[in-house]
Amino acid sequence: MAGLEGHIVKVKSWDVRFPTSQEAHGSDAMHGLVDYSCVYVQIFLESCHLIGCGLTFTCGRGNEIVKHCVDSLKPKLLGQKLSDILGAFGEFAHSLANDNQMRWLGPECGVLYLASCAILNAIWDLWAKVEKKPVWLLLCEMSAQKLVNCGIWKHLTDVMTPQQALELLQNVASDPEEVNKRISHVKENGLQSYTTACGWLGYTDDYMSSKIKSFMEDGWDSFKIKVGVNIEDDIRRCKMVRDLIGEKGRLMIDCNQKWEVNEAIEWVSQLAPYGLYWTEEPTHPSDVIGHKKIRDGLRHLGVKVATGEVCSNRVMFKQLCSEGAIDICQIDCARVLSINELIPILLICKKYNITVCPHAGGVGLCEMVQHVAAFNYVRVAPETNPDNPVLVEHAEHLAQHFEIELDCTGAAYRLPTGEGVGYSTTMKDESLVKYSVSMSE
Amino acid sequence: MAGLEGHIVKVKSWDVRFPTSQEAHGSDAMHGLVDYSCVYVQIFLESCHLIGCGLTFTCGRGNEIVKHCVDSLKPKLLGQKLSDILGAFGEFAHSLANDNQMRWLGPECGVLYLASCAILNAIWDLWAKVEKKPVWLLLCEMSAQKLVNCGIWKHLTDVMTPQQALELLQNVASDPEEVNKRISHVKENGLQSYTTACGWLGYTDDYMSSKIKSFMEDGWDSFKIKVGVNIEDDIRRCKMVRDLIGEKGRLMIDCNQKWEVNEAIEWVSQLAPYGLYWTEEPTHPSDVIGHKKIRDGLRHLGVKVATGEVCSNRVMFKQLCSEGAIDICQIDCARVLSINELIPILLICKKYNITVCPHAGGVGLCEMVQHVAAFNYVRVAPETNPDNPVLVEHAEHLAQHFEIELDCTGAAYRLPTGEGVGYSTTMKDESLVKYSVSMSE
Predict the structure, then answer these.
(1) Beta bridge partners of A385
(2) Residue B31 bears catalytic tag
(3) A107 falls in which pLDDT band (50, 70, 90)?
(4) Which residue of A379, B106, B262, B287 lies most exposed, with the fewest beta carbons within 10 A?
């Protein structure tokens, strides 16, 4: 294919900021008011009109630092042939964040990871555009061996070797007709979602209530609200939501890492009578052992433990899964090393029977996550556990800035089709011009 | 004291690079050739001639990103009164890296942490200069309550509350005369050190051998060498060092995170016959459970497990200690949130009876670490375990660029005294001018 043989001739990076703090969208116990932002990367190939567009999300201040980091990584891209990158894509992805001098800035976390992720997301977008398929279909139709080649396996082999990953992928795809059925199923039915857009901490009770009613009218039955600042407020809000959504509705809570380990158990126990499906990010994201203690402390109440959206890297996920520290794994598409690192994470979740309910919201996360969730269903974990249904987060605030329309009709992600979809991350030119504060090329 | 009431009126940040790759200093299995660098921060007070000087270390490329981050954090300093910062120093330190929007860039790791650390190190240096004491003595003479106020306790209370920390500190300092004796002891005898400056991976056998002989003549009996690329080379090098240093000498190895968990056990088992005191950073630094597996797998060989130099934050150290994943904790003075985060880490090590053998080398790390090691001996862990002696790393390459002379005569850190010492991090003006590639103010 023509594009694959092209060399990367230009990489543009943009610092894009949306003033979401004006309306309290995104407000929670740890972050207060935030301005949803992203570093947006465009990769240009020689003699090819296609542009690879990728991004990573931030909460506003500091976005410029991630952009600086993207700029420092550009020499690793310029002059490279796309097919060379894709031929050993897993190794390339790992090496991007493991430059022998720069890796000290992580290792494998933080700014260096966010910046590398934005670049890798742009490469996935470009690859899919060259192949004229959306990323989700590119992944669903990819051979098991190629998927393994795209993955990063370093430091995981005590729980999963590339060979074991290959076998797992081959087993799940052993019947090609079954795979095609799943693809058709996901095309027709979409991916069940839950919404967070009703329960930001800065919303009044009245506003929350009206949002929930409106989401219920649109088909949603699963809702997440932010908690963790004041227990009385939390009790009142949980009761209010439970009354609104009825016995069958799902209610999840999220304190965004605020609690101490023991405090989490005590606090959530007081809210459990309102019927909680999960408690999300109950404590520090690095605390594998703390999550395990919390999970053990809440099991008798039937409240599951979920985390992952700011989890640094695959080695942290490996431990969360192998130690039984979580029930629900919330992968994010803009923090670890793109799909290259998500492939092993999804497979490890599968091995330990952990349900993957991806994180979304922010800028562009809903757009990307539907691709990964569809792949996970078709090629990794097609069985559904009725006690732990897969729910993909939905919090649509800034979808209007993207070229490919996000469709969540009937509370289900309707997967995008068409040859220009890529990773759904192409931003509209007018949005880039209006909301970017700087650009380098 | 006059300086304490001063307001911060200016903060300068410098990107300083030393071309160490030309001589293979610092070369190891993960980093190859590196250029030791630092981001250097100077804090200026109104109407005060004292300058607070702090730094964080990096391996070269990417240093500019950390400097960008320092620049983005400057608004949190400018206009602040020093006494206000110090009055709630622990809270200030935590908040610096937990700005509600910027914390997404971590959380609590990577570039944001390195940059915050450089700033906090400069504040400690300034405080000590205002008090006319070196940092180590400032800490050794500080009340237990004040030390607790300087510490960061968030997300640690399942293993240590501030109250428990206070009681621990009070117990160790219950006899003031004993504390004074320890201060005198450390002044007279210094702190026993080991050297890494003999065993970089890029050194030839001959060069290594001549370095070791010369270090032995100067009094050293404990040596660390880099391993992890080729097992035959490692066997040859370990044998060579053992032959040189005799039965009583201590030999440590360090693969700088290169191995898989099971590979670490196999590789180290092959080197164990040469008598290894510890194996350092045997695998990914985020892998608490992996380190525990390795420790369990090597116990019968008598090889201890050490890690910590790139460990992200106190929550990772909490788990390494409470899970029994390490024998030796290698704190670093330029990665976590300065002494504010090291105080709880040292106390948690004490609680779990883990020996603290600080990491040093790079730029300025030897200079700082002696202060923290002396404090740890005098106020936290004065008992010495003959099986796990405290050894402070020494790898002096760039000491000539600092105003306060580093003295390791007789293989022991000789602690600096004098009112201008601060944290020993004041760089010489001529070095700054010669080796800095950019400066902002």
Answers:
(1) A388
(2) no
(3) very high
(4) B262
Q: Using pLDDT thresholds of 50, 70 and 90, give the confidence band for residue A396.
A: confident
Average pLDDT over residues A319-344: 98
CA distance A240 to A147: 45
Going from the N-terminus, what domains does chain B have, and what CATH number goes with each?
2-132+429-440 (3.30.390.10), 176-413 (3.20.20.120)
CB-count burial class (<10 Å; 0-12, 13-18, 19+) for B206: exposed
Q: What is the number of alpha carbons within 13 Å of residue A159 lying toward its C-beta?
A: 25
Per-residue pLDDT tens for B263-302? 999 999 999 999 999 999 999 999 999 999 999 999 999 9
Q: Read off the pLDDT band of A1 (50, 70, 90).
A: low
- Assess A315–B contact: CB distance below 8 Å, yes or no: yes
Burial A139-166 (b: 16+ CB within 10 A, else e): bbbbebeebbbbbbbbbbbbbbebebbb
A348: amino acid identity, one letter:
I
Which residues on B lie below 8 Å from A64 (Cβ)? 68, 72
Per-residue pLDDT tens digits for A129-148 = 999 999 999 999 999 999 99
Q: Which residues have CB under 8 Å from B174's CB, separation 6+?
A: none
Mean of pLDDT over chain A: 95
Q: Judging by DSSP bridges, how do beta strands B191-195 and B392-394 pair with one another? A: parallel
- As a whole number, the mean pLDDT across chain B is 95
Q: What is the C-alpha to C-alpha distance for residues B77 and B123, in angstroms, rounded to an integer?
A: 10
Task: Please judge whether A289 and B323 are an interchain contact, meaning their C-beta atoms are less than 8 angstroms apart.
Answer: yes
B103 interfaces chain A, CB cutoff of 8 Å: yes
- Convert the pLDDT of each residue in A163-190 to its tens digit: 999 999 999 999 999 999 999 999 999 9
Give chain A's length.
Answer: 441
B-chain CB neighbours of A310 within 8 Å are: 104, 107
Q: Which of B65, B263, B316 lies at the smallest CB-CB distance from A72?
A: B65
Q: How far apart are CA A144 and CA A146, in angstroms?
A: 5
A155 and B287: CB-CB below 8 Å? yes
Partner residue facing B289 (CB), from A68, A286, A322: A322
Two structure tokens written together for B66: 């950390």
Check if A59 contacts B (Cβ < 8 Å). yes
| Three-state SS sequence of A199-256 | CCCCCCHHHHHHHHHHHHHCCCCEEEEECCCCHHHHHHHHHHHHHHHCCCCEEEEECC
Which residues of A, range 361-420, sit inside 8 Å of B by Cβ?
none
For the whole model, what pTM was predicted?
0.97
CB atoms B286 and A315 under 8 Å: yes
User: Using CA atoms, how far apart are residues A354 and A212, in angstroms rounded to an integer?
Assistant: 28
For residue A107, say if its preceding peptide bond is cis, omega within 30 degrees of 0: yes
Q: How many CB atoms lie within 10 A of CB B165?
A: 23
Q: Any CB–CB contact under 8 A between B179 and chain A?
A: no
Q: Judge whether A107 is closer than 8 Å to chain B, CB to CB.
A: yes
Taking CA atoms, B392 is separated from A87, B7, B220, B317, B412, in Å, by 45, 36, 12, 18, 9
Nearest chain A residue to B318 by CA distance is A287
Q: Which residue among A155, A312, A323 places its CB closest to the CB of B109?
A: A312
Longest dimension (CA), chain A: 62
Q: What value of ipTM does the predicted structure carry?
A: 0.96
Question: Does A289 lie at the interface with B, CB-CB under 8 angstroms?
Answer: yes
